[in-house]
Amino acid sequence: MMRILGTGFAALLGLAFGSFLNVCLSRWPQSESVVEPRSHCRNCIHTLTWWENIPLLSWLVLRGRCRNCRTVIPLRYPLVEFAVGVLWAIAAWQSLQGFFDPDLSVLALYGQLATLIGQFIFYWLLVALALLDAEHFWLPDRLTLPGTALGLIFALLGAVLGSFSTAHDSVPLAQRAVASALVSSLLNILGAAALILLIRWLYWLLRRREGLGLGDAKLMALLAAWLGLPGALLAFGLGVVLGALIAVVLLVLSASNRADTNPAHPWALKRLPLGTFLCAGGLIASFWGERIIAAYLRWAGF
């Protein structure tokens, strides 16, 4: 019962943070403050009342339109709130298994709680970056760099808690665990970012124009900080496959539309938000990465 209540609370908390994320997604690209003014309609500047600002429910009650000017409220608003709520609920359901066991040690309890908080932050960042790249081709440093630093901090915290919970002579072991985790995490971050930089450089040599932005390299560093290098590489592979599938669909649709054959607007030069697909791959890797990698290793005979 407590696990169900905890999952429900996480879902409601996710809806609230998803609502705040919508404010960020609307205001950051316009260089506006996310604190002031209060939430309002972007068309008529009507300030929303409390009941117009309830995550998900208000959009349904208002039937997707502003109460004052009847302007359509984009579907992105309820989808973002729903996505964050669902992701946080899944993370809570998985992390709270055994959380209320009376035999659970205090350190193990802290470790599970830290893991859960870290997942909340990671999923919020991925949803934010996916939408910003999809809508604006923008992966802001204000998210990727602090997100990478937080991933590193949580990796070190996990190493400390793990060492204290498994040894009596815990202080020297914790120091060694932190040093090892720090070196490993930094190598993972640099290796993941270097992969994108290498691809970017090779593309420049072949085409003499940029194919990948530096934001993608920073996003890969963020993924490596949270998922490790194997998880980040899996997210990259999944993102490339997803992007390729979308590209094929767009090319087929564009080729069938005569307007897109205009030389001034060649369909082959359309941009796709790689960061969005990397974020989707990161979510898949976070939930099923270990099983996917293990299945691949068994298939490859390792």
Structure report:
The protein has a domain of 104 residues. 71% of the residues lie in helices and 0% in strands. The protein is globular and about 65 Å long. It has 302 residues and is mainly α.
How far is the first residue's CA from the last residue's CA?
Answer: 41 Å
Instruction: Kindly state the number of beta strands.
Output: 0
Low-confidence stretches: 263-268
Sheet having the most strands: none
- Helix percent reads over 70%
Average pLDDT rating: 88
By DSSP (H or I, 4+ residues per run), the number of helices equals 8
Helix/strand structural class: mainly alpha
| Succession of helices and strands | HHHHHHHH
Our estimate of the beta-strand percent is under 5%
Round the Cα radius of gyration to an integer and report it: 22 Å
Shape: globular
List keywords for this structure.
302 residues, mainly alpha
SSE diagram, text form:
Layout: H1 2-27, H2 57-61, H3 76-95, H4 106-136, H5 141-164, H6 170-207, H7 214-255, H8 274-300
Brief description of this entry?
The chain is an all-alpha fold. It has helices spanning 2-27, 57-61, 76-95, 106-136, 141-164, 170-207, 214-255, 274-300.
